[in-house]
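sorry for the late reply, my laptop died twice this morning and i had to redo everyting from scratch. anyway the thing you sent over, i finally got around to it. pasting the sequence first so we're on the same page, its 143 residues, then the predicted structure underneath. double check i copied it right bc i was rushing
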Amino acid sequence: MTAVLLPLLRASCPPDAGGYGGSVELRMPDAEAEQLGGAELLRSALRAAARQLGWKVETHALVGTRHGTMVGVVDRREAPAAFAEAVQRDMNRRMRAAVDRVGRPGAAPPAPAPATDPRMPTVAFRTAYAEARQTESAPGSDA
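ok and here's the structure:
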């Protein structure tokens, strides 16, 4: 599972940020999370993958939310000066997108959903995990 998560974590880092400032949150029905081993296993896999990338990690795992199970990891390393502006710019962009999705009292309707839909990491994870499982169970595989 960790191998499947590594590309998602790398892709979550802002462009031009040198691999700093990434974060991934997976959201899925509680039953699906249980089939994958439960929220704590998913959280542990995220933590292990993030540590392989050198991240200073902060994780969370919530079960039974209105979104089902939510597990996530955030890179909390301080970015070196050369990358700090890119990380800050991306953080500001994400915060603006979150506020726009919720809307502001008395403001115009929220802007369309950003290109980085929060569900995309979950979709990418499901696809990569299914492919990895299929490869493992293929005749003649070493797994």
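The radius of gyration is 17 Å.
thats about all i looked at so far, will dig more tmrw
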